[in-house]
Design brief:
The protein has 97 residues and is an all-alpha fold. Helix content is 90%, strand content 0%. It is built from 2 helices and no strands. The longest helix has 73 residues.
Length: 97
C-alpha cells in the first residue's frame, strides 16, 4: 500500500506550479526586479563616490584659496618693504648731493 505524504504532495505541486509556463512572467519579473535593485545600488555607490570627490575638490580649492591669500599678503608686505627701502635710498642719495 502506498503511503500518502502531504508534504511530498505539496512539494510536487509547488514544483509543478513553479515550472509551469504561466509562471514565466512572474519569474522574469522577479529577475528584472533583482537586476533593477542591483543597478540602483550601483548608482547609489557611484553617487557617493562622486560626492566624496566633490568634497575633496572643495577642500583642495579652499586650501589653495587660503594659500593664494597668504601669498598675496606676503607680496604686499614685500612691496611695502621695497617701497620703504627705495624711499630711504632716495633720501640718502639726496643728502649726498
Amino acid at each position: 500500500m502506498k503511503e500518502n505524504n502531504p508534504n511530498r504532495n505539496r512539494k510536487q505541486h509547488f514544483e509543478k506550479g513553479f515550472e509551469s509556463p504561466e509562471n514565466q512572467p512572474a519569474k522574469l519579473h522577479v529577475i528584472g526586479a533583482a537586476i533593477t535593485t542591483l543597478g540602483e545600488a550601483i548608482l547609489t555607490i557611484a553617487a557617493l563616490a562622486e560626492l566624496q570627490e566633490l568634497e575633496e575638490e572643495q577642500r583642495l580649492s579652499k586650501k589653495q584659496s587660503h594659500l593664494l591669500k597668504e601669498q598675496s599678503r606676503q607680496l604686499e608686505q614685500m612691496q611695502k618693504q621695497i617701497d620703504l627701502l627705495t624711499y630711504q635710498m632716495s633720501k640718502m642719495d639726496r643728502r649726498k648731493r
